[in-house]
Write a structure and sequence with these properties.
The protein is mostly beta strands. The chain has 1 helix and 22 strands. The protein has 2 domains: about 190 residues, Sandwich (Immunoglobulin-like), CATH 2.60.40.10; about 70 residues, Sandwich (Immunoglobulin-like). The strands form 6 sheets. Strands 10, 11, 13, 14 and 15 form a 5-stranded antiparallel beta sheet that branches. A 4-stranded antiparallel beta sheet has the order 4-5-1-7, with no helix packed on it.
Length: about 270
């Protein structure tokens, strides 16, 4: 529990390029209070404001200090407009005053959207009588976290340990946190990370088309071309290196559809007379 009017803060990744964007006003530190399973937003501190004091520690670690005016027991750092497929968001240890010995020193917690789901990774520098980690997810609001998995911990160790968890249910926007449980049942929550997928729609161009049709979409998408009667008249797969170009010059003039075989998304195009 962080106290009101007592220094608190976060340690940030050394030489993190996100920090430069944060100074441009694209990040904020938010605090929350969780009681009885309900989470309430408390305060927000823009990283570019004079409410946050940034300093460089030995080893290149960036320390972000702020002075909360209300108590809280959860903290997150949010980066805006940087959440896309394949991008990591790293969050490191949070602290408050007074600083009590932590059962787990969390040095990294990040999430990444992949083709198989949201890949979460975290790292500890030391652990003391720990039992396990519970991975929790919320969609749309950080007040409705739900447990989605459990990962066992090493117990007690002064060495670095790495953990990972794959959430196969990937939403467009998801919030994740770790609930670290000690052997005596004591629970501690990590900062929150956000994973957002890159939204790519299925598209076909030029439209109208007379000869070569190019199809744009997510890598790995297999699609078919159908006429107005629903008959398949062509198919292809979008690869990592090339976008498919289909020769539709022999198709009769009219309206056609490109359909994603897996997701069912459609794009329509008109075959014009040459």
């Amino acid at each position: 529990m962080a106290q009101a009017n007592k220094p608190a803060g976060l340690y940030l990744r050394p030489n993190d390029p996100l920090l430069n964007l944060a100074l441009a006003g694209l990040a904020s530190v938010n605090t929350y209070m969780e009681t009885g399973g309900n989470t309430t937003a408390v305060e927000s501190f823009p990283l570019s404001s004079n409410l946050i004091n940034l300093s460089l520690l030995t080893g290149g670690i960036n320390k972000a200090n702020f002075m909360p005016t209300k108590p809280f027991n959860q903290v997150e750092i949010v980066f805006v407009a940087l959440l896309s497929l394949g991008q990591n968001i790293g969050v490191f240890e949070a602290f408050s005053t007074p600083v009590a010995p932590l059962p787990v020193v969390l040095t990294k917690f990040q999430g990444k959207a992949t083709s198989t789901g949201a890949a979460l990774q975290w790292e500890t520098a030391s652990e003391l009588t720990t039992s396990h980690f519970v991975v929790e997810r919320a969609s749309g609001a950080t007040s409705n976290f739900r447990a989605i998995g459990r990962v066992g911990s090493v117990g007690t160790s002064s060495q670095r340990h790495q953990y990972q968890f794959l959430d196969g249910t990937l939403a467009q926007l998801s919030y994740y946190r770790l609930r670290q449980v000690d052997l005596d049942g004591t629970e501690t929550f990590s900062p929150v990370v956000v994973v957002q997928t890159e939204v790519v729609t299925l598209a076909a161009y030029p439209n109208p088309v007379t000869s070569l049709l190019t199809v744009l979409g997510s890598v790995g998408t297999t699609f078919i071309i159908m006429d107005q009667a629903g008959r398949q008249v062509g198919s292809a797969t979008i690869t990592e290196n090339t976008l498919p170009q289909l020769d539709v010059s022999n198709l009769p003039a009219g309206l056609y559809f490109v359909q994603d075989c897996a997701a069912g998304k459609r794009a329509r195009f008109v075959k014009a007379t040459q």
